[in-house]
Structures are given as C-alpha cells and as structure tokens.
Amino acid sequence: MDPQPSTSSQSLSPRKKRPRVALSVTEKVMIQNVYKHVFEEKAATLLPFETPEKQECVSKTADILGIGVTSVYSVLKEYKENEQFKSPEKRGPKHNFKDKLDDFTFTAIRRKVHQFFYANEPPTIAKVLKVVNEDTDLPNFSWSTLRKIMKHLNFKYATKSRQSILIDRQDIILWRQRYLRQIKEYRREGRYIYYQDETWINEGHAPKKAWIDQTVLSSRQAFLDGLTTGLKQPSGKGKRLIIGHIGGEEGFVEDSLLIFESVKNKDDYHQEMYADAFEKWFSEVLPKLKPNSVVVIDNAPYHSRKLESFPTMSWTKSRIQEWLTSKNISFETTMIKATLIEIVRQHKHQHGEKFVVDEMAAQHGITVLRLPPYHCELNPIELVWAQAKGYVARKNKTFKMQEVKKLFEEGLNLVTAEKWKSCVSHVIKEEEKMYGLDHIIDNISDRFIINVTESDSDDFVSEDEDE
C-alpha cells in the first residue's frame, strides 16, 4: 500500500487575487450567480428553519473566483439597490505632467529655481514648491510631481553638508554658456539675427482676471435690477490655432506667417508640427533672409531631424558594416555586432550629427543657432507672442476660431519694428544676466557642496533628504 502523502509536503499555494479593476457587467453577473449557487448549496445542508450565514457565503464566493470579499459585497449591494448592473465608466488615456504642461510653464518653473541663485540662496524642492504654488499664474503641484518636473528640466541634486540643492546639469550649463558666447560673437561680427518660434492660442482665449460685481448673485436679480451678470465667458478652451513666425530687430519677415487649426484632442502643439511641414515652410522663408544671417530656434523634434542616422544595435550587422565602409572606417568581418557598434561610437565625433534644417540654411549662407532647452526668455519672439495674445484676450468677444485668427493677425501687425527692437534689447540684458548666473552657481556650489561623486550627483535624493 502506497504511503499517503503528508499535507506538509504538499502545501498548496494560496490563490492569487486578481488586481483591483473595474468589473464589467458580465463579471458582476457571474459573481452574483456564484454567490447564489454557494448560498443554495449551503442552505441544502441546513434545517428548514436555518439560514446560511452571508459572511461565510461571501468568503467562499471570493475564494472560488479569486477576488476580494469587498468586491463580492459591492456587487451584491449594487444589485440590491438597482436590480441591475451598470457598466464601468470608461477612462481616457493616462496623462503625466508633461502632457498637461506647456513649455512656458516649464520655463517659468526653471526661472523660479534660478531666482534663488540670483539671491545667493541654495534652492531645494521645498523652497521651489513654495514659490511656485504661491504664483497665481502657475498650477499648484505636489512635492513628488515637482520633483519629476525638476528632473525633466535637467536639474540634478548635489550633496551638501546637511541637505541637497538643485543645480543645472553640467551639459545644460555648457550648452547655455556656449550659446551665450556664440550669439555674442555673431553680434560682434555684425551678423543680423532672426528669431523663430511656434506658439498656440485657444479660441476661448480671454483675460485671466476681470472686474466683477459681487452684489449680483443671480441672473434673475440682475434682470430685476436692470443689471448684467458680467462679461460673457467661454465655456471652455475650445479649438486651437498653431502659429509659427520669424523676425528680428527690423520686424517680422514679410509673408512668413505659418498658421493653421489644431487637430482635435491634441494636448501639445509640438505633436502637431512635424519635420516635413516645418522644413517646407523653412525652405520658403530662407530666400527672404539676409545673407550671412543667423536664425535662432529651439530644440523641438521637428527642428532637429537628423540628416543621417548613426548605426545602433537595432541595425542589421551587414547594414552596420556598409555604413563603416562608406566612412572608410576599417573593421574585421569576423567582428560581432557589439564590437562594430563600439567602433561606430569611437568615430562618431568625426562624423558629427548634422540636421536637415542646418544644412538647408547653410546652402543659403545662413547659420542655425539652437537655444538651450527651456530657455524661452532668451528668445524675444516670446515677448512678441505675449503682445499679440494680449490683444486677442482684450478683443475676443465671440470665442470663435475665425474671429480669434483675425484678431491674432491684427495683434501681430501691431508689433512694429520699434517694438521688436525693444524686445531684442530686453533679451540682450537677460543674456548678460544669465551669463553671470553660472558663475553664481559655481560660487554657491563651492560654498556648500562637499564630497560629491559623479554617481551621487546624477541621482535624485530621497524625500527625507530634501526635507
């Protein structure tokens, strides 16, 4: 006779519970039917005057289906109250902070951090959070969200004596210094500088603040008193216009306005501009620019399509070999793909990345200069956009796309060469101020930072450390 297996040697793993998700109508019906079956099965073993305990039946139902008892109770309660089941509400796609915020907000937050440096005070997340949330023109953030934003804006933590401070990443500092030196040199050479950018405006664009009569509490009261309920307000943001333009100290480049209506349900206007469309517009603008001039642009993806792609591990081995051969780079046919990619990396700097836009400009004797990420304050066209949008906000009464487009064009026409020159002068002062910023950061870092290693400085500290 075979020995009976011991229960200890064959201990059963507990049934895994399904993750908590919204239940469909079919699932709810199944839960109800299983509960009913368990209840009736239990009742059959009891005397006629006895009733099965609900808690016991619920627990067994949950065990059979691998769900929580809370879900079973919830389904039974829903059916008891409504005598039917409702389908779960459909949820839209999840959006993170990058989908909800625009470049102007990111730039404003970055400037808040730099204000601490200008005041010779080391910034922390807690300090930045306070000043950002106190600014009525900016959204309110939680500590954790602001921390993610700081990382997105290329800030890093540097360890100091008792806590950590936020500083720009080294590559951003180098980019900013390189840009400031380069544009200063171009001005010294007497080269004309154009500034290019894109923006957007909603058909519901209106002033953020307005005077209201607080004594009017209802439309009925307003009617009886011969008053109004105030200015008509848009029901929402509405559709969106995407705008692009280019100009300099002498004003806008003539007949170079790019304007079109946004695709519905797009969160970011950058997603609606693509390289082909921008390059087509840019090719039409280039012949209108002064010889040997400079065009300042940002780092949007559609500005930075590469003229040539460099090999990666996703390439086939034969394709990598063909690329190396075309560049007269020697290799052995017996080498594995990883070794070939390493050779590519070693020679990559000799075949620097070239962008389509840069090459297009070079054919016309024009230089493209790229702004550091989220440095909108170094582009005077941002001030121009603000003037045009302010005009729309003051004049917008219908909140219709056709009217908004007309008003925006009128607003642009009011930005004269004199106003453009004033905006450029303002930016030159910002450049001088920012050039000194990195020296301030160096001084603060020298005073506070101790024992920083490369690995420490690249990672964000925990919440406790920053508190």
TrEMBL record:
Which chain positions lie within coiled-coil regions? none
Fetch the Gene3D superfamilies from UniProt. Answer: Ribonuclease H-like superfamily/Ribonuclease H (3.30.420.10)
> Which residue numbers delimit the Tc1-like transposase DDE domain?
272-400
Any one Gene Ontology MF annotation carried by this entry is: nucleic acid binding
Q: Which domain of life is it from?
A: Eukaryota
Write down the Pfam families for this protein, in alphabetical order. DDE_3 (PF13358)
PANTHER family, per database record = DUF4371 DOMAIN-CONTAINING PROTEIN (PTHR33939:SF1), PROTEIN CBG22215 (PTHR33939)
**This protein is called what?**
Uncharacterized protein LOC126911231
Organism of derivation: Spodoptera frugiperda (Fall armyworm)
Q: Which gene encodes it?
A: LOC126911231
